């Protein structure tokens, strides 16, 4: 599968912009990275490997993502995380009329109000990304985390 270098650069920049929106607490921008009928889910690697459809979080469209943000901003009460994402090994795993499929490693560090930082989560993104008139958009973003346990409340997108 040969993807032109300029397209790969665009895809990396798109992933970086997505991460910056989360890390900079611009959650209202988060749903804009997705098509209106996109899928977003966070699922443990064990469930993924066994074919068990039991994600911790699943949004079946951008409206559900916008609702998630409204809930985070106005309904839920919790200590706001301070995330920093680190990505590596973005690899194209396929491309067809449905979009470009990517696999990207991620690591998320969380710093609490006392100032201690810890690895919050590691895993892979499995993405399907399409070019639209408005630019690149996720048709699907599956966040597959490595451990079977989440250390703290999973409220924010990963």
Q: What's the short story on this structure?
A:
By secondary structure, the protein is α+β, with helices and mostly antiparallel strands. The chain has a single domain, classed as Roll (Nuclear Transport Factor 2, Chain: A).
Tell me what you see in this structure.
The chain has 158 residues and is an alpha+beta fold. The protein has one domain (5-145): Nuclear Transport Factor 2, Chain: A. Helix content is 24%, strand content 43%. The chain contains three helices and six strands; from the N terminus they run αβαβαββββ. The protein has helices at residues 5-23, 45-50, 62-74, and strands spanning 34-44, 57-59, 83-96, 99-111, 117-132, 135-145. Strands 2-1-6-5-4-3 form a six-stranded mixed beta sheet. It starts with a helix and ends in a 13-residue tail after the last strand. The model has no long low-confidence stretch (mean pLDDT 91).
């Amino acid at each position: 599968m040969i993807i032109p270098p300029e397209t790969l650069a665009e895809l990396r920049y798109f992933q970086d912009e997505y991460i910056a929106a989360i890390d900079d607490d611009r959650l209202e921008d988060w749903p804009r990275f997705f098509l209106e009928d996109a899928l977003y889910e966070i699922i443990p690697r064990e469930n993924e490997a066994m074919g068990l459809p039991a994600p911790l979080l699943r949004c079946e469209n951008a409206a559900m993502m916008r609702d998630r943000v409204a809930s985070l901003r106005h309904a839920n009460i919790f200590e706001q995380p301070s995330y920093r994402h680190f990505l590596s090994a973005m690899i194209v795993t396929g491309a067809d009329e449905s979009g470009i499929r990517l696999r990207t490693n991620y690591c998320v560090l969380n710093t609490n109000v006392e100032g201690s930082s810890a690895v919050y989560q590691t895993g892979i993104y499995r993405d399907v990304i399409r070019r639209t008139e408005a630019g690149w958009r996720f048709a699907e973003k599956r966040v597959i985390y490595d451990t079977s346990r989440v250390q703290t409340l999973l409220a924010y997108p990963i």
